[in-house]
Amino acid sequence: MKLKYLIIYSLITALTVSAQAKKTKLLVGIVVDQMRYDYLEKYYNDFGKSGFKRLLKNGTNFTNCEINYIPSVTAAGHASIYTGTTPFYHGIISNNWIERSENFDLVNNCSTIKVPKIKTAEGISKTNSPDRLLSSTIGDQIRLNNFGKSKVYSISIKNRSAIMPAGKGANAAFWFDDETGKFISSFYYLEKLPEWLISFNNSGLIEKYCNIEWNLFKPQSIYSKLPEDNSRYEADVFNEGRTSFPHSLENVETKYKYSKFTHTPWGNQILIDLAKKLLVEENLGKGKYLDHLAISFSSPDKIGHDYGPQSYEVKDTYLRLDEQIADLLSFLDKQVGNDKYILFLTADHGGMENITHLKDMNFDTGVLENTNFFKKLTQYLKNTFGTEKIIKTRFTRNIYLDYHVLDSLNLKRESVEAKIKHYLLNNVPEIADVYTRTELNKMTAGRENSNLILNGYNKRRSGDILYSLKPHYLNWEKKYGTQHGSGHSYDTHIPLLFYGNIFPAKTYNKKVYVVDIAATIADVLGILKPSNCIGIPLVKRK
Ligand SMILES: [Zn+2]
Fold it and tell me: Is 85 known to be catalytic?
């Protein structure tokens, strides 16, 4: 008897769950470029009620989400969020890398591998596409689930932040062109821009935003706990002879106007405007099938690079973003319906404290490329093997061996790799860890962050010797603002919020990983997860 009731009860529950999941008409993915987890805590009291706080109070908040690979950079971050896997599988090992199969050229993560010899319409790029992404994304799975009847769009200021989330099967990715001040796309998705986007581009919005003076959004007292506004740790981005408020594009050379525009909070605003326009014009969340919109805010990254985590400018950007997100949420409530969309918010990486600031505070810090470590390594190779030509080339954290030279000298790759590793670990104090290709090829990437170099390594694309740096060390000089890319907490600890009627209002402090996002979304939607997803679902739908 009891069993019978249990079965009936389970059936009813299952039906309710699937009915609720079916009701979801739109998935919104939000990435805030360079948003560290601590910003949610640090600015909490100064946020309004309807932005981040609405997501935090009503959604599921993971306070301990980590990026589980090196390098923590934008292209790898966006690819990992949406594919649920790491560069080991999705292949986006950085923003740029040396490509062995293309004559050791330095290639861009979203550059087209074979640029087609075609004439394209205005605003359609031939040189950008998702060619190099090796795994499917959550958007791809949504489209595959119903023969492409779902609509999937991705928008950002940066091309990589629009293209990586879109995956291979999206309707389109749109991003901001620094030269023209217009949103553009790729031949990969479209022959020409939709009419609504052309009219959005020609609406004069960009000129309006370029002419706004950037003043503090809230009263001065809200910012007073921060250090000096006119700080020597910040860059004078807009040629103003100071680094303090107010800022404007007045002194910026015309040819840099649109690119410098993206270094202001109006870079976020124009994306909100575009999101609203796209939602309406493409009728997202209003059809029979689940649609998906990916939005990535790039300006917080640019402003962070300019001014650093302790600046008035970064705080101001987040206080404004809070309002901008509140505005987007209330628009979604009206346009799609509060119970018909689900959303996640996360970041592609964090950022380090300003390096000069760290030095001033007596931290152990430094810049690897300011030392002559590579010259010394070359000398060591010359002494050991009679030639330095053993190294073909190198690029941030990756050293590539010349296999032809090794063969001609009858040298085994494995032993040369091991010698270089031994040298680096014993002679270069800035370096924390070194792995060789031979070592890494014996291992497989995993969900956890036990080997960040391995998780960020790709057999075809990475170098032969990979290294990481000690905390608070940088590869390249970056005097002002911040930098990121490491496997240390300041770069890897990111926010993770899920919101929507199928997510419980709960906060978890267990350790979870960036790769779990796609796994969770696939699970709550009841669809197949992306092709190389190594994450696990974090939430049971309500
Ligand atoms: Zn960045």
Answer: no
